[in-house]
Amino acid sequence: MQHDVRSGCCHPTAKMAAPRSCALWSYCGRRWSRLMRCCELPGIRSSWPGGPLGARQLSQEKQATETHFGFETVSEEEKGGKVYHVFESVAKKYDVMNDMMSLGIHRIWKDLLLWKMRPFPGTQLLDVAGGTGDIAFRFLNYVQAQHKGKQKRQLRAQQNLSWEEIAKKYQNEEDPLGGSRVVVCDINKEMLKIGKQKAHARGYKAGLAWVLGDAEELPFDDDKFDVYTIAFGIRNVTHIDQALQEAHRVLKPGGRFLCLEFSQVNNPLISRLYDLYSFQVIPVLGEVIAGDWKSYQYLVESIRQFPPQEEFKEMIEDAGFEKVTYESLTSGIVAIHSGFKL
Ligand SMILES: C[S@@+](CC[C@H](N)C(=O)[O-])C[C@H]1O[C@@H](n2cnc3c(N)ncnc32)[C@H](O)[C@@H]1O
After folding, report:
1. Ligand-binding site membership of 215 (annotated)
2. Ligand 1 centre and the CA of 330: distance in Å?
3. N or C terminus: fewer CB in 10 A for the chain?
């Protein structure tokens, strides 16, 4: 049986016919679901079993039991455990492997996510699938630098202060983050443990909390955060649509969703080189550095299973977000999707 890496479809003729038909099928499904959502009357759920929505529900129930884990087909119950095992196994080497695999470029992509966010003073951020804290630490650096800059400008504006008054102002500064906070939420204890150790070693204390939790069932109240980020996390979640709905629920009205994830390379030459590198080099690096071929094989396969930019944009819209846009980086190797809860 042939497996088409781009479509993620397993079918004897997958390479020839499946990419287009699968894309078309999922496109039609999404359009249909939107149309039906618009047609639903308030308070009345369309569940007419013989009707089109009933059929959709039935087929969803049938499909609901199976999903993919990389290129493997597994039951939905199995997937969570397998993903957990991957990140439990790679946690200790996660950061060094990220640098090795991406030649350090993941740092630039994460910086770009922060520049896109441009947090304002007092921003409450939830970083889901936050792992070892890369996004959270960048956020804290950003808001601290911003707050310091503001403080300096204010002091400069007050020309005739004595040095004692200036020193006092600095000492009285209780919150160097200007009220901003970040919560890192991840399902994996080992990843969080490494994150906490890193935070301790780098001296991050204030404004940072670590919470064990599932992106599909976030342990937070509604309308709580200004920004929700998820970096290289959402492709590992079993029900992406559910995770998106949870993101929407916990954001305040006006809040922003930002997702950094691997995406579809749009240049055929780069795509070939990238496939070669991913499948021939990354698992070998995984074996040599982390003694774990399988986990890194899963990582590259899971990237190929994730929907391309436009399709993911529609999924975000389906979850209720508005003004959804995306930017492809490094020829589409990754993309940042953004949406607002309005
Ligand atoms: C590739 S790491 C990304 C870590 C971090 N965001 C970064 O960019 O370095 C993926 C993370 O997603 C987490 N994860 C997977 N499934 C999850 C779920 N259902 N809910 C929350 N976190 C999940 C894993 O435990 C892992 O820490």
Report:
1. yes
2. 22
3. N
